[in-house]
Amino acid sequence: MDVRTERHQPDYVLFIAVLMLTGIGVVTVYSASMVYDIHQGLSPDHFAIRQLAAAILGLAALGLCTFIPYHFWYQHAPKMMLAALGLLVIVMVPGIGHRSLGATRWIGTTSVHIQPSEIALMALVIYLSYLLTRKLPILRDLRRTFRPAMVMVAVTIVLVFIEPDMGTALCIFLTAMVILFAAGVPGKPLGITFGTAVVVGFLGARMAEYRSSRLVAFFHPFQHPKSSGYQLIQGLTAIANGGLTGRGFASSISATGYLPEAYTDFIFAVFTEEWGWLGDLGLLAIFAVVIWRGFHIARYARDRFGSLLAIGLTASIIVQTLINLGAVTWLLPVTGIPLPFISYGGTDLVMNLAAMGILLSVSRETELELPEEDTLADIISVDEIRATRQDAAGQFRRSSGRAPVARLSNFRTSPFRKSDASGRGTSLKQADRPISLTWRASREAAATKRRDERSRKPGGPFRRHKR
């Protein structure tokens, strides 16, 4: 197969799926926060308008990132990582970091703020893709590849963990593991790292009282129905009330004040109550399309950096989605991770849309495989080969008076992919190489004469030699 890189239009299937998720998110935020806004003395569409503004800003970022060549991120990956780490440090400075619900995770005021941990997640995906592409020739040297990567991952996780934001730290760790695995890092160090992280994470969860209460609520929610298990029980009740077809738009009972964080972490429960299990299937189908197109783009990416970048960005969406849905449906402890594109949150929505823009940028440059038959037809036809050989033979006969023996060389029926000394793939364009007829008249004539002499001897060319 011939492989050719071609620039074309971005993946519109992915774009439409992301656009649908964003629209569903804005509508669901309005439905889930309407009663809460009224109770707070705000406009019924207060949070919905803020989510719509974040969606517009995020779509602008998506469009910008789509038409920026994705190698721009390769060139600036170290700077972006350092800037993200700087934001994680600044958020802990008194007077700068905004504290809410017992955590200091935001920079800005009460009305306008950003969450640096979301920026750090995307920056780390870009940096790991850059590092594992740059270190490809020495990938098996763990001291020079795996260790620097894990140091950066560990520093990022520690800074996020002490905010505290254990949910985002978990997302960062799992996404990094997926990128390292996809890059070809040996399984043994990955397994040791994963096991160590599980132990450290469990001990860290036991250190803080609110984390311990979440574990207790996960294992025994109905023993604490009015305290730590209240939110989970109300979320399960909302899912059960939805049934097959749901109660209808803006008809959720749980969103009227029974379910805490109805428009953020537990928005999926409100969506299920309003649209039912059939609505859930439709929503999950759209998420599946996003994941499918993400891995499709990674498979046909132009180079290793584009492939790892697409895998990392897609993995971040998968990890966030699974953790959020697992918490709402009582499969995982509650960690406070929002549902991508759906939950209320400006920084999360903008960064996810920007990530999809980078994914669309990778999709604009893919490798196309051309059939072997078409390649052969484009090179030269059989009739042209015979005509060329006859013309060359006639010219040689007229000039030397001898019948030449022609040998066709430097011709292949199809181009192939090879790797040069640097390890990077290069395409051999055989269509650009002319067919050459190499004439070795003297050697071939002598060989023909020797064959004729052997054939005239008794037994011919197949005679037996005495031992």
UniProtKB/TrEMBL annotation:
Reaction catalyzed: [GlcNAc-(1->4)-Mur2Ac(oyl-L-Ala-gamma-D-Glu-L-Lys-D-Ala-D-Ala)](n)-di-trans,octa-cis-undecaprenyl diphosphate + beta-D-GlcNAc-(1->4)-Mur2Ac(oyl-L-Ala-gamma-D-Glu-L-Lys-D-Ala-D-Ala)-di-trans,octa-cis-undecaprenyl diphosphate = [GlcNAc-(1->4)-Mur2Ac(oyl-L-Ala-gamma-D-Glu-L-Lys-D-Ala-D-Ala)](n+1)-di-trans,octa-cis-undecaprenyl diphosphate + di-trans,octa-cis-undecaprenyl diphosphate + H(+)
UniProt xrefs under NCBIfam families: ftsW
Pathway: Cell wall biogenesis; peptidoglycan biosynthesis
One term under GO cellular component: plasma membrane
Organism: Alicyclobacillus acidocaldarius subsp. acidocaldarius (strain ATCC 27009 / DSM 446 / BCRC 14685 / JCM 5260 / KCTC 1825 / NBRC 15652 / NCIMB 11725 / NRRL B-14509 / 104-IA)
Compartment(s): Cell membrane
Transmembrane segment boundaries: 12-32, 52-73, 80-97, 117-133, 145-161, 167-183, 190-208, 275-295, 307-329, 341-362
EC number assigned by the record: 2.4.99.28
Region (Disordered): 414-467
Keyword Transferase: yes
GO terms of molecular function: lipid-linked peptidoglycan transporter activity; peptidoglycan glycosyltransferase activity
Record's compositionally biased regions (Basic and acidic residues): 441-456
Sorted UniProt keywords: Cell cycle, Cell division, Cell membrane, Cell shape, Cell wall biogenesis/degradation, Glycosyltransferase, Membrane, Peptidoglycan synthesis, Transferase, Transmembrane, Transmembrane helix
Single GO biological process annotation from the record: cell division
Family indicated by similarity: Belongs to the SEDS family. FtsW subfamily.
Name the UniProt record assigns to this protein: Probable peptidoglycan glycosyltransferase FtsW
Highest taxon of the lineage: Bacteria
Function statement: Peptidoglycan polymerase that is essential for cell division.
